[in-house]
Amino acid sequence: MSLLIDSHIHLDDARFDYDRNELIKMAQLAGVSHFVVPAVTVNRFPAVLKVAQAHPAVVYTLGLHPYFINQHQAADLEFLAQSLQGSGAVGVGECGLDYYLKDLDKVKQHKIFEAQVILAKYFDLPLVLHVRGAIDDVFNILKKHDYFRAVMHSFNGSVEQARQVTEHGIYLGFGSAVCNPKATKLQDMIKQVPIANMMIETDAPDQPFYDRAGKRNLPIDLLKVNMEIAKLLGIEPDFLAMHMSANAKQLFRL
Ligand SMILES: [Zn+2]
Known about the structure:
Bound molecules: zinc ion
CATH class: Alpha Beta
Strand content: 15-25%
CATH topology: TIM Barrel
Number of strands: 8
């Protein structure tokens, strides 16, 4: 079995506080070699660093998530820039645009996101993107800065949008949503995505599997995601795992 890399997992989340070490160990024994943990607010930076320090298999990215736009301040961008300087961060994020929640200030979202694109380009780090209902706007900002080293995590766009962004070398992350038998549109889209542009993720503890509502996603669930996508594409899970790991290693320079 090829080793797997979870390209998006919130291991710092408080919901893992009582069994984090055991869950990481279990996933490692099952073949997960690396976990990419994105921070979402400056308040979470210490917790993310702590997990990374305790576990050599954990790498992290630092960023300001659009979901918490009301918390972010201009000083947070300065702090992010300072934190990226000489840190071991392998990327900038989780950042992006979220148009699903109407009370999230769009103008502020754009400002905070664009600043992070500039930082990623300056530090030559990839972007970990959160995009909901805003693929075209995120893509336009990346085009404006001519910077496409990025993964759009939990991608759920159209076939045409997938084609446009992957043509620029952007990676698309897929997770538990793929396993829902009702997610036929998503599954059909994934079949059109070049394997060289794909990544797998759990987004644990978020985005529970369709048959496990209310429960946490776990680090070991990456195997299930890998298995389901392999089945969908009609290829061996081991073959897919090999490609997924190579892609994550390339983007995050692991
Ligand atoms: Zn996330």
